[in-house]
Each structure stands twice: as structure tokens, then as C-alpha cells.
Write a structure and sequence with these properties.
Elements lengths: L12 H32 L2 H31 L9 H8 L3 H43 L6 E3 L2 E3 L12
Antiparallel strand pairs: 1-2
Helix pairs in contact: 1-2, 1-4
């Protein structure tokens, strides 16, 4: 995907930065919603909804990364290069106004909520994967088969049980 150059003229910097922050906010809201949908799909074991939510989540995360690169280009373009960028200082330096700072704070709050929601969903996925592995172990009765999960292939981790003697 070809992205237009994010090197704005100095007079456009305030508008470009405000637009970037507003896009961050919109995208963070989409990610937050996708994580809520993913959570519900995991609880209801709805595979189709889980696939849709995961695709939306991945697209939103990718777009947030692109926007972050754009913000970095804006920051570098102002000569304010630091190891740990201070976005608030950038807002003050460019003179974006309080609306942009408030929007950025909302983005940061949503990012924290998204991280918590993603961790909660990961815990649900781990629990479900353990259930599936246990069921496969019972059915496989000592099989050395592996399952595929979030971390790649792994063994069952359970010892086989006898279902009875004939």
C-alpha cells in the first residue's frame, strides 16, 4: 500500500498533527470495539464472530502502527528527536491547542483499556486451548500429536488416561 508523504509544509503542521491524533483516536475506538467483540465471541464460542473480530483487531492495530510512524515523522520533522518522544511537548511546540491534547489523552486511556482487554482475551484463549488439549488427549489416548496455538505448536502437557479395559 503506497502511503502519501507525511512531510507537511511547516504551515500545515498543526493541521496534520491534529488529523493524525484524530485518526489515532478513531482507530483506538475501533480496536476497543473489536476487542469487546472478540471477548464476546470467545465467551459464546462463536467462531465466525471471532474470525471477524480478529480481522478487525489486526487491521486496527496495523493502522495504529502506521499512524505512529506518521507521528514519528512529524516529530522528526520539527527537530524534536529524543529516545523517548514526549508527544505533549510536541503539541505545545507546534501549538495544536487543548483539543488535540485532550484527544491524545483519550487515545492513551483507550490504549491502556485495550491492553487490559487483550490480556483478558488471551487468558480466555489459553483456557480454551487447555480444554481442547485435554479433550484431544482423552480421545487420542496417549497420542504424541501436537496442537497449534497462539505460541505455535506445542505438546498436550497431559498424560493419557485409560478409558476402560475390554
Amino acid at each position: 500500500m503506497n502511503q502519501p508523504s507525511l512531510r507537511p509544509a511547516p504551515t500545515d503542521l498543526t493541521a496534520v498533527l491534529a488529523d493524525n491524533v484524530n485518526q489515532h483516536l478513531s482507530c483506538a475506538q475501533r480496536l476497543h470495539g473489536a476487542l469487546a467483540e472478540e471477548h464476546q465471541a470467545l465467551l459464546s464460542k462463536n467462531v465466525d464472530a471471532l474470525v471477524r473480530a480478529t480481522a478487525t483487531k489486526a487491521a486496527a492495530a496495523e493502522r495504529l502502527q502506521e499512524l505512529g510512524h506518521g507521528l514519528e515523522q512529524i516529530r522528526r520533522g520539527t527537530g524534536q528527536v529524543q529516545a523517548a518522544p514526549d508527544v505533549e511537548s510536541l503539541f505545545e511546540r507546534i501549538g495544536t491547542g487543548p483539543e488535540v491534547s485532550r484527544a491524545w489523552q483519550t487515545v492513551l486511556e483507550l490504549a491502556a483499556e485495550c491492553a487490559e482487554a487483550n490480556d483478558a482475551n488471551a487468558a480466555l484463549l489459553d483456557a480454551r486451548q487447555t480444554e481442547v488439549r485435554a479433550a484431544l488427549n482423552v480421545v487420542g489416548a496417549g497420542s504424541d500429536r501436537q496442537t497449534y496455538g497462539r505460541s505455535g505448536y506445542s505438546g498436550h502437557g497431559f498424560s493419557p488416561r485409560s478409558l476402560g479395559l475390554a
